[in-house]
Write a structure and sequence with these properties.
The chain has about 775 residues and is an alpha+beta fold. It has five domains: about 60 residues, Helix hairpin bin (Helix Hairpins); about 240 residues, 2-Layer Sandwich (D-amino Acid Aminotransferase, Chain A, domain 1), CATH 3.30.470.30; about 80 residues, Nucleic acid-binding proteins (OB fold (Dihydrolipoamide Acetyltransferase, E2P), Beta Barrel), CATH 2.40.50.140; about 180 residues, 5' to 3' exonuclease, C-terminal subdomain (DNA polymerase, domain 1, Orthogonal Bundle), CATH 1.10.150.20; about 70 residues, BRCT domain (Rossmann fold, 3-Layer(aba) Sandwich). It has 31 helices and 26 strands. A hairpin with a 7-residue loop joins strand 17 and strand 18. Its cofactor is Mg(2+); Mn(2+). Its EC number is 6.5.1.2. GO terms for molecular function: ligase activity.
Length: about 775
């Protein structure tokens, strides 16, 4: 029998309320998010069809109200009092002693709980239904944020169970979990949204949005920690029992709450929570102690605006104000350039902070941090201190916005940022001391120069002890260097064996490493290019460069637009190659490698296929000149026979050549930039050199897989995936590592996984190993 709409609505509400309770209170999710969303959509559709059945406590009523003009004031029936603070063990002992003396009790039970760093609120329920929510405000009067609080899923819209008090006010804290805060900010950074300063400010700001739809997008949570007004019913006469009942009614309550005895119990709790603090999923700034029994609370009473029976034991502050003395750049092991603020020393969370990260240039621009500014510095546990905000009303006169330096402070190479990325990087990969160890690891790796036995430990020790200042220094290492390095390490670590003390050292490991270094001297162009560690240049790109250009000397002096003549190399990769080879330090490192005996065995002439794109019009397109499209480039190439002719032509001649005035003006303005004119000149000369040395492509026959992208996945029995890839490339294929809409063929071996599934989803042709072997045999490239 089909249930009536009213019955189905009631059932859906029950399921959704139960799911919320299990998720937010019990921390035991009962249904997947997709199922929750499906039930919510069904309820929403039923209520839309039967608006007379909509109630204020329905889960559908959490979001959707129009923005408010302003927040109304709410006078708290019972004031939301503040707490006195304790900062030392002695103050905690004094707190306990005062209560014991007044109540004349030798032992006291306290409810101890974390002090969340969020926004205190009061929730009013009438006959079990949420009717109003307000901020603490000044304690007597707060702001009505009911509509915003309805969007917080952890806050029940209707109490569980029965026999509720006619009126029940629940006090608690709205907060933003750390992980959700970081996820929200990362999304905001990527999409140009507002970045929140810290979880506490994020929670407070979210609840004070005039539009509750904005609040609904913020990752807010809630913990109940007490009650206010109670009418028409009773609660237990102890704080801990009240918390248990609130949990049963549907409110999240911190699982870290405990009942402890006396001052020593309180201090032990403080220490345990302090030790766990950095690993908690939410921010806390201390713990709260409350006398557990209600009779004792009433007897103790209040002083001024605080209860005598409760106190907050604060942790050392995690935020402090200080002054930015300088902003410097720190280069990481991968070349990332991170701005760091040098600060007037300040105590934050128990340590003296003198430096704080500013993350990246975009973050500095968002915060508008300047040298001389007074800033708020935040430190949470072992996390590197960060500048959370600027105190603008204390900004000195004459400060200037900060600009990212153009060159690396360590090696002098250009600092570059690719379009769409937040991170700036030093482009002196091989020459930058800050990137030395990472360069060495990559250079020696199996798919690069394949120096067997040169592991991380040796790279660390050889670099730290001064034997390796660059990758080229690998090829001047001697057996004596390695043995002396080992002796120094043993002495440093206090593990010097008796044989070393006697002057005898086992040498086999060192001999093997020297032999491996020597073997790596003879290599291929593909391996050498990959070993250089150029940003965005993986194995497939290195192979393509080697196949199409054939010669290291040609590649290392090529202007970046010409790299785009290689299929699948776009502007981002081409510019990365250009930046790398434009750095004198990188060129010197290559010279040093060649001078120390590195030989590339497979140098050859450029591929004849290059000729099809070696013309002036294509060059102008590859230069990415504003408003110079393929059509405009061909018009210019028809009117001007060479780069020199273009450079010598007055601007009005570009209009004569057929360009619209806006395109002609854009091209003329581009040429007026000296750097652009030099790039065009260099590119024109490189184009001529390539044409002179590139053979006719008449004799170049296309392979059966020419222009096809192939992906290998799973295990093959007859050969390794690398071997299969080489055979496919010999037949013209491009072997890629991931499946996309551009993939033409997927070869699936044993235990093929997600790549096979994606290929099936996209309708891409799929071969098994037998089909692959048959194809290779047919085209003379079998196993």
């Amino acid at each position: 029998m089909t249930p009536t709409p009213a019955a189905r609505i009631a059932d859906l509400r029950r399921q959704l309320e139960d799911a919320n309770y299990r998720y937010h209170v019990l921390d035991e999710p009962s249904i997947p998010d997709a199922e929750y969303d499906r039930l919510l959509r069904e309820l929403d559709e039923l209520e839309a069809a039967h608006p007379d059945l909509v109630t204020a406590d329905s889960p559908t009523q959490r979001v959707g109200n129009a923005p408010a003009g302003k927040f109304a004031e709410v006078r708290h029936a019972i004031p939301m009092l503040s707490l006195g603070n304790a900062f030392s063990d002695e103050e905690v002992h004094d707190f306990v002693r005062r209560i014991a003396e007044k109540l004349k009790r030798p032992t006291l039970q306290f409810s101890a709980e974390p002090k969340l760093d969020g926004l205190a609120i009061s929730l009013r329920y009438e006959n079990g239904v949420f009717v109003q929510g307000a901020t603490r405000g000044d304690g007597a009067t707060g702001e009505d944020v009911t509509l915003n609080l309805r969007t917080v899923k952890a806050i029940p819209l209707k109490l569980r169970g029965k026999d509720w008090p006619a009126v029940l006010e629940v006090r608690g804290e709205v907060y933003m979990p750390r992980a959700d805060f970081e996820t929200y900010n990362e999304h905001a950074r990527l999409h140009g949204g507002k970045v929140l300063a810290n979880p506490r400010n994020g929670a407070a700001g979210s609840l004070r949005q005039l539009d509750p739809r904005i609040t609904a997008q913020r990752p807010l949570a809630f913990f109940a920690y007490g009650t206010g007004l109670v009418e028409g019913g009773e609660l237990p006469d102890s704080h801990s029992a009240t918390l248990k009942q609130l949990r049963a009614r549907g409110f999240p309550v911190s699982s870290l709450s405990e009942v402890v005895e006396g001052a020593e119990g309180l201090l032990d709790y403080y220490r345990r929570i302090g030790e766990a603090r950095d690993g908690l999923p939410f921010d806390i700034d201390g713990v709260v102690y409350k006398l557990d029994d209600g009779e004792g609370q009433r007897e103790m009473g209040f002083v001024s605006r605080a209860p005598r029976w409760a106190i907050a034991h604060k942790f050392p502050a995690q935020e402090q104000a200080t002054t930015v003395e300088a902003i410097e750049i720190q280069i990481g092991r991968t070349g990332a350039a991170t701005p760091v603020a040098r600060l007037t020393p300040v105590h934050v969370a128990g340590v003296i902070v003198t430096n704080a990260t500013l993350h990246n240039a975009d973050q500095i621009a968002r915060l508008d941090v300047r040298v001389g500014d007074h800033v708020i510095v935040r430190r949470a546990g072992d996390v590197i201190p960060e500048v959370a905000g600027v105190i603008l009303d204390r900004r000195p006169d004459g400060t200037m916005p900060w600009q990212m330096p153009t060159h690396c402070p360590v090696c002098g190479a250009e600092i570059v940022r690719e379009e769409g990325e937040a991170v700036w990087r030093c482009s002196g990969e091989l020459s930058c001391p800050a990137q030395r160890k990472e360069s060495l690891r990559h250079f020696a790796s199996r798919r690069a120069m394949d120096i067997e036995g040169l592991g991380d430990r040796y790279i660390e020790d050889l670099s730290d002890l001064g034997y390796l200042a660059s990758v080229a220094d690998l090829y001047k290492l001697t057996l004596e260097d390695l043995l002396e390095m080992k002796r120094q390490v043993d002495v440093r670590e206090g593990t010097t064996p008796e044989t070393v003390k006697a002057g005898k050292v086992a040498t086999k490991w060192a001999e093997n490493l020297i032999e491996a270094i020597d073997r790596s001297r003879r290599t291929t162009l593909e391996r050498f290019l990959f070993a250089l560690g150029i940003q965005h240049v993986g194995e497939s790109t290195a192979k393509a460069l080697a196949v199409w250009f054939g010669d290291l000397q040609r590649i290392r002096h090529l202007p970046w637009p010409l790299f785009k003549r290689v299929p699948d190399i776009g502007g981002e990769v081409a510019r990365s190659l250009g930046h790398f080879f434009d750095q004198p330090g990188n060129q010197q490192a290559i010279d040093d490698l060649l001078a120390r005996g590195v030989v590339i065995d497979d140098t050859h002439a450029p591929s004849g296929k290059l000729r099809a794109g070696l013309d002036l019009a294509t060059l102008l397109v590859d230069l990415e000149i504003p408003k110079v499209t393929r059509v405009r480039a061909e018009q210019l190439a028809s009117a001007f026979p060479s780069v020199d002719a273009l450079l010598d032509a007055p601007a009005h001649n570009f209009v004569t050549a057929g360009l619209p005035s806006d395109s002609a003006n854009a091209f003329a303005a581009w040429l007026e930039d000296e750097a652009n004119a030099k790039l065009l000149t260099r590119s024109g000369a490189a184009l001529d050199e390539l044409l002179a040395n590139t053979p006719d492509d008449v004799g170049v026959s296309a392979g059966p897989l020419d222009g096809k992208t192939v992906v290998l996945t799973g295990g093959l029995a007859a050969m390794s995936r690398d071997e299969a890839g080489e055979k496919l490339e010999a037949l013209g294929a491009k072997v890629a590592g991931s499946v996309s809409k551009k993939t033409h063929l997927v070869v699936a071996g044993e235990a093929a996984g997600s790549k096979l599934a994606k290929a099936q989803e996209l309708g891409i042709e799929i071969w098994d190993e037998a089909q692959l072997l048959a194809f290779l045999a047919q085209h003379g490239s079998g196993a």
